[in-house]
Amino acid sequence: MKKMDNSIKNVYDNVISRDPNQPEFHQAVEEVLDSLGPVIEANPEYIDVVKSMVEPERVIQFRVPWYDDEGVLNVNRGIRVQFNSSIGPYKGGLRFHPSVNLSILKFLGFEQVFKNSLTGLPLGGGKGGSDFDPKGKSDSEVRRFCQSFMSELWRHIGADLDVPAGDIGVGGREIGYLFGMYRKLANEFTGVLTGKGLSYGGSLIRPEATGYGLVYFAREMLATKGKSFEGASVAISGSGNVAQYACEKVLDLGGKPVTMSDSSGFIYDSSGIDREKLSWIKDLKNNRRGRIKEYAEKFENIDYTESKPEPNTNDLWATKVDVALPVDVALPCATQNEINAAEAQLLVDGGVTAVAEGANMPCTPEAVECFLTNGVLFAPGKASNAGGVATSGLEMSQNSIRMNWSREEVDSKLEGIMINIHKNTFETAEKYGFSGNYVAGANIAGFLKVAESSLSQGIL
User: Fold this and answer.
1) Same domain, 155 and 234
2) Measuring CA to CA, which of 57, 72, 73, 397 is 20 to 30 A from 248?
3) Whole-structure pTM value
4) Strand partners of residue 96
5) Is the Cα torsion angle 191, 192, 194, 199 positive or negative in sign?
6) Are 50 and 76 part of one and the same domain?
7) Which residues contact 141 (CB under 8 A, 6 or more apart)?
8) Tell me: the pLDDT tens digits for 361-397?
9) What is the domain extent for residue 288?
10) What is the pLDDT of residues 233-291, one digit of tens each?
């Protein structure tokens, strides 16, 4: 709160008083508003935009009844937060996970507004999902749930209104079931979802996009200090889609990935996760749906640490008895708030040069402050993990013109977008007195485009 002037602080205080039990949303709002002081000072009229931006344009909540394979009725809760559409249709993923609640979806939707703005594409921000857990469910159960979920959601989305995508718990299988139900109910075939299969309107590079984009951004960030991934030791958390393809692109650029994790624990491979090992991990997680501990059983000289039962712990970042993790680059790709202040300090002590967020808000505010104070290059997720939504935007373009671009074309466009996001973020931070602070640069750059659009349209 130290950077907020009174007018901005009043907006934040109002957010707290209106929704006192939404800590994740409060955290996301505070992080953005902390950066906007110089902008409001230079453009006092933007304070009205700030007041409107912290309130979603629309929140839709609905029940999702479905029968499991034993014939037992289950009822989950579905939510879609349509946060801001001033620069384009709402765009943001669907998350199926037991932790899903309104606070988390509002935080994700709010972040999405700025992330989508930074891509330079005409995309608004939204997010949605359900407290349904696809883990351990049969394909038939997942299909029945998705069809029930879409039987309500379809009324509120459309190719020019709201275009959801996947997120945690929503992969190609779920997108397929959701799209099929939408097509049946709406009686039309449009690009209403992204992340689709290649046979029905999907885009090449979309599965790889977030991980590739993350590493492209980190590469640009390292280059400002005359550094690169060549020979760098890289810690990656998670082992899902983002982590896998971040690992792949790190290998492309000559780096040495040494870690991956899941909810059961993490592995540390001092010799590096090479392409053969990465291929094995992809099969483990994508096909066999196994646990990362199996990696330690398959390969030699692997350290495996089981996760602690306490909530909000991630042993990857606090290795054995609080020993600093000796890495050059850290790419947290698992979930929000996975790195706290103490764990950030361990990374600093281990000599980390750069940290780029592959997940949404994986570093606590205290962790971010630790990195910035110690001169570590730090990229916030709204900038560094924007590659996924950028390529979703490219998928929307291909759907609109009824064409498919080649893998090389999409990858080239993605790389260009990430380079531009870095340039815009870096230069905006310089302009407003936050030299080298990518958090402030991303917040301000994302805000300015939305603010101008909102004022032009009358702040509706």
Assistant:
1) no
2) 397
3) 0.90
4) 130
5) negative
6) no
7) 66, 68, 69
8) 899 999 999 999 999 999 999 999 999 999 999 999 9
9) 209-375
10) 999 999 999 999 999 999 999 999 999 999 888 999 999 999 999 999 999 998 888 99
Question: Does residue 297 have a pLDDT over 70?
Answer: yes
* Whether residue 127 lies in the annotated active site: yes
CB 14 within 8 A of CB 39: no
- Number of domains composing the chain: 3
Please identify, among 322, 340, 375, the residue that sits at the C-terminal boundary of a domain.
375
pLDDT of residue 321: 38
Question: Which of these three, 164, 192, 220, is where a domain ends?
Answer: 192
127, 249, 256, 285: the catalytic one is 127
In a domain, 399, yes or no: no
How far apart, in whole angstroms, are the C-alpha atoms of residue 368 and residue 250? 23
Task: Provide the β-strand partners of residue 15.
Answer: none
Residue 444 falls within a domain, yes or no? yes
392 assigned to some structural domain: no
Q: What is the 3-state secondary structure (H, E, C) of the chain?
A: CCCCCHHHHHHHHHHHHHCCCCHHHHHHHHHHHCCCHHHHHHCHHHHHHHHHHCCCCEEEEEEEEEECCCCCEEEEEEEEEEEECCCCCEEEEEEECCCCCHHHHHHHHHHHHHHHHHCCCCCCEEEEEECCCCCCCCHHHHHHHHHHHHHHHHHHCECCCEEEEECCCCCHHHHHHHHHHHHHHHCCCCCCCCCCCHHHCCCCCCCCHHHHHHHHHHHHHHHCCCCCCCCCEEEECCCCHHHHHHHHHHHHCCCEECEEEECCEEEECCCCCCHHHHHHHHHHHHHCCCCCHHHHHHCCCCEEEECCCCCCCCHHHCEHHHECCCCCEEECCCCCCCECHHHHHHHHHCCCCEEECCCCCCECHHHHHHHHHCCCEEECHHHHCCHHHHHHHHHHHHHHHCCCCCHHHHHHHHHHHHHHHHHHHHHHHHHCCCCCCHHHHHHHHHHHHHHHHHHHHCCC
The token duo for 334 is 């698992």
CATH of the domain at 226: 3.40.50.720
236 and 350, same domain (yes or no): yes
How much is the pLDDT for 371? 97
Same-domain pairing of 259 and 361: yes
